[in-house]
Amino acid sequence: MSHRILFIASEVQPWIKTGGLADVAGALPKALAALGHDVRVLLPAYGDILAGEQSLRPVHRFRAPAGFEDWQLLTPRRRTDGIRLWLASGPGFSDRRGSPYLDEHGQDWPDNAVRFNAFCRIATALASGRAGTVWRPHVVHCNDWQTGLVPVWMQQRRVPAASIFTVHNLNYHGRFEPQTLHRLGLPSYLWHADALEFYGDLSFIKGGLVFADMLTTVSPTYAEEICTPARGEGLDGLLRHRREDLVGILNGIDPDEWDPRSDPHLPANFSVQDLAGKRQTKQHLQQALGLEVAADMPLLVMISRLVPQKGVDLVLQALPDLLNRGAVQLAVLGSGESALEQRLRDLASAYPGRVAVQIGFDEALAHRLEAAADLFLMPSRFEPCGLNQLYSLRYGTPPVVHRCGGLADSVVDVTAAPAAGTGFVFDQQTPEALGAAIEHALALFRQPQAWRQLQARGMNADFGWKRSARAYVEVYEAAMTRLART
Ligand code: ADP
User: What is the SS3 assignment for 423?
Assistant: First the structure.
């Protein structure tokens, strides 16, 4: 049976991206459409999108709900892959450039509660057919805290659609001072630990976790982890209470965006049968980044938001020993906390020709680094799913990962399973354990035949979206059943 699905996210590839949510919001709707479902995507019309896209046409100008006179729904004239994209244009989004969440000083926009609440209300209007559209969804799929109030407003407005809330990262709550509840027009009875209150503050993510009909997160292991006090971010009690409604579904990757055989960002393409293009890409990148050009020198790569979650500190501690011995090169692409950025710059200055650090967000360079690298480093403290390890597997770059979340679910440790392994998995999140895993990797790197087999297993692994999209459809159907019962 075909379902009508409204997919709501604060970032969607290729329109706007700060992390993995955008990749998922770009790819999952396409995969659902390919299964025959009618999927529409709603995204805020950020200033950067409006500046770069000429062909938007207005669909609807809002009159109700009150106070939304300045809001419009826009849509691109061209449709991609059978998906209708709606852009919600309004104050706080369309009149602003830069990051969706942070101002030019890296601080949260001070009106984040107001602007994302407005986005949630526009989404609710759309879901209830009050946005100039006849189309109404069976299922509304919300993602992360920015959309957490959608299930709340859906309940307030009695919207007859099932709701799903997906946790892409439980670390981000959308937490605001208590007065926000009334400022957003929410009723007082929602000020309760069983509703939107979180330790004296208002929590957007609780809106999703308490009020959505079904919950998902982006890997089976992370679904287990967030139900424990260690990883539950203060929400584990609530999540344990809803354990039966919580499903972990591993993200896929967009096979069109990430394919070494056709990737337009690479100086040379390659495949599992012929890796010559990978070697050329490595040489090209060593030159471009000012690294010594040496085909046999293992090139380690990290691409990441530079935040404590990602374990950059472990890399900073484990690498000098290897670099001093001339055993590896390191290239890092990332941006985030300025202290981590500085420590990485210092490492690059200390090891000219051996360490290259690019601070910034650069999609094309990310593709080239995935392709050029011999090993990909992902020593995350926690990782809901992680996409870079999946890209690196596809690009013949075995990942070195800490055993947690989606990393545990997607990388098979070759040290423990020599015939089935796809990468290197370490258990303790320490510099020593990371260093030891890299040493194992370097030992295998010196055995060309075994290395080729390791690469081939990763490149042939199936991380397409089809299987995951089917799992989401099952969750949608479970949510519709729950809704019908209430
Ligand atoms: P997270 O969502 O926690 O940032 P993921 O691994 O799930 O981590 O997804 C990160 C996505 O963002 C990947 O597609 C990765 O390639 C991309 N990315 C992260 N930092 C950068 C950067 N500095 N430049 C380009 N792409 C980046």
Answer: strand
Residue 425 has pLDDT above 80, yes or no: yes
pLDDT of 67 over the 90 cut:
no
Alpha carbon nearest to ligand 1 atom 22, residue: 361
Of residues 276 and 63, more confidence is placed in 276
Ligand 1 pocket member 386 (CB < 6 A): yes
CA 218 to ligand 1: nearest atom: 7
* Residue 23 CA to ligand 1 centre (angstroms): 9
CB 37 within 8 A of CB 69: no
Residue at 197: amino acid letter = E
Decide: 333 in ligand 1 pocket, CB within 6 A. Answer: yes
Split at pLDDT 50, 70, 90, the class of 194 is very high
pLDDT at position 65 over 70: no
pLDDT at 64: 60
Q: What is the mean pLDDT of the chain?
A: 95
Q: Is residue 76 within a helix (H) or strand (E), and if so which, with residue range?
A: strand 72-76
Average pLDDT value for residue range 4-8 = 98
Handedness of CA 348, 322, 318, 287 (dihedral sign): positive
For range 228-251, the mean pLDDT? 98
Looking at the domain 4-252+466-485, which fold is it? Rossmann fold (3.40.50)
| pLDDT (tens digit per residue) in 82-110 | 789 999 999 999 999 999 999 988 899 99
Residue 58 in 3-state DSSP?
Answer: strand
User: Is any atom of ligand 1 closer than 6 Å to the C-beta of 306?
Assistant: no
Contacts made by residues 310-315, CB under 8 angstroms, sequence distance 24+: 310/334, 310/378, 310/379, 310/380, 310/381, 311/378, 311/379, 311/380, 311/381, 311/402, 311/429, 311/434, 312/340, 312/343, 312/344, 313/340, 314/379, 314/429, 314/430, 314/431, 314/434, 315/377, 315/379, 315/434
Q: In 16-65, which residue ranges form alpha helices assigned H by DSSP? A: 20-34, 47-52
Residue 280: CB partners within 8 Å, gap ≥ 6? 267, 268
Are 301 and 366 in contact, with CB atoms under 8 Å apart?
no
Q: Which of 124-138, 142-156, 301-315, 435-449 has the lowest mean pLDDT?
A: 124-138
The token duo for 33 is 């459409």
Same fold, 4-252+466-485 and 276-460: yes
Residue nearest to atom 12 of ligand 1 (CA): 19
**Residue extents of the structural domains in the chain:** 4-252+466-485, 276-460
CATH architecture for the domain at 276-460: 3-Layer(aba) Sandwich (3.40)
Query: 334 CA distance to ligand 1 centroid (A)?
Result: 8
pLDDT at 254: 84
Cα–Cα distance, 18 to 28 (Å, whole number): 17
